[in-house]
Design goal:
By secondary structure, the protein is of the alpha/beta class. Helix content is 43%, strand content 13%.
Length: 345
């Protein structure tokens, strides 16, 4: 689909430089399956281990998206290829609150009630994984690039699993302050802290490349060191390289060079310095600044690799967090669409 094929039909009365005139994502004149990239909201945060609130992020990001200027200095008017928000619901607010209650009961003790609550929570998380998986598979089959917005990071599992099925040699580029490689956390098999462990265990993911990790358990560290599928640019190592005189451009190129042709981006907002995401679920000092993260995305898109989809998770629902989240979402979408352009040339 060319940019004009979308635009000629749906943009006759649309002013891209004007204020958002509707309640669609970024105020764009597309709905449903129009366009090439579709965003699914997954408002779930029941396994949050420090503080909750990211379940409200999809709505907060939607509202903040209305003040994002559509013309992008690096990719131009690539939005014309179409960015839409999915109408399918995969998690109801009542389910999230029920799951949060189970999590509290599970944490409170080790008796039968606690074990039952853990089982109920794991079952609901598994169901949500299946719903996200089904939606993502449908989007890929329809020729759309899928994007998932959480909620906690664990909601991305079903999407990554579907992407791995469609692209057997898929690599995952993980932006994160945490490794998310715990076999379980607080007894929960589908904890947000276990996302990448589950990806490595339950999918055919060929390579996991993590950037910005600075809060990690010893068992996670040993898993990384022992695995030929996982590489990690720890935050301290990245800083040491910069202080030693390396350019960030060369570091970004090395990161991208370790990825296969097909790539899923998994972007946990806490990869940023907390000044950019103060209300994320588990903030950690240090981290990437805006320009550094955007440089990696640029180098990835310019490399000719195929960004098959992405997720954006752990965004706080406060106003500034939502503003940063909306702009991160837009840059991810632009780079994903850019890579699709190159893949079809």
């Amino acid at each position: 689909m060319t940019p004009d094929a979308v635009g000629d039909v749906h943009e006759r009365d649309f002013d891209p430089d004007g204020p958002a005139g509707n309640d669609t994502l970024f105020g764009l004149p597309y709905t449903g399956t129009q366009g090439e990239l579709t965003v699914l909201s997954v408002p779930f945060d029941a396994t949050a281990s420090y503080r909750r609130g990211t379940a409200a992020a999809p709505q907060a990001i939607l509202e903040a998206s209305w003040q994002v200027d559509l013309f992008d200095l690096e990719t131009g008017s690539i939005w014309r290829r179409g960015i839409t928000q999915a109408v399918r619901r995969v998690c109801a607010a009542a389910e999230n609150e029920q799951a949060a209650e189970w999590a509290e009961v599970a944490r409170a003790g080790t008796g039968d009630e606690s074990r039952a609550a853990t089982a109920d929570l794991d079952e609901l998380c598994s169901q949500i994984n299946d719903r996200v998986h089904a939606w993502t598979a449908d989007a890929i089959d329809a020729g759309n690039a899928p994007a998932v917005v959480g909620g906690e990071h664990g909601v991305a599992f079903g999407a990554i699993r579907a992407a791995c099925e469609a692209y057997p040699k898929l690599g995952v580029l993980q932006f994160d302050a945490h490794a998310d490689l715990r076999a379980e956390y607080e007894g929960f098999a589908w904890s947000h802290a276990s996302l990448m462990y589950n990806v490595l265990t339950h999918t055919s993911c060929e390579a996991l490349v993590s950037v910005g990790v600075r809060d990690i358990g010893e068992a996670e560290y040993r898993l990384i060191e022992a695995s030929d599928r996982v590489s990690c640019w720890y935050d301290y190592a990245l800083r040491n390289a910069l202080h030693g005189g390396r350019s960030f451009e060369s570091i970004a190129t090395e990161i991208v060079d370790s990825l296969p042709e097909d790539v899923w981006i998994s972007f946990d907002i806490d990869v940023f310095n907390p000044a950019l995401c103060p209300n994320t679920g588990t903030p950690v000092p240090g981290g990437l600044d805006w320009a550094e993260a955007m440089t990696i995305l640029r180098v990835l898109a310019d490399s000719g690799r195929n960004i098959v989809g992405f997720d954006l998770c752990e965004v706080g629902a406060a106003e500034f967090d939502a503003i940063v989240g909306a702009r991160t979402l837009y840059k991810l979408a632009c780079r994903c669409l850019q890579s699709r352009n190159r893949a079809t040339e």
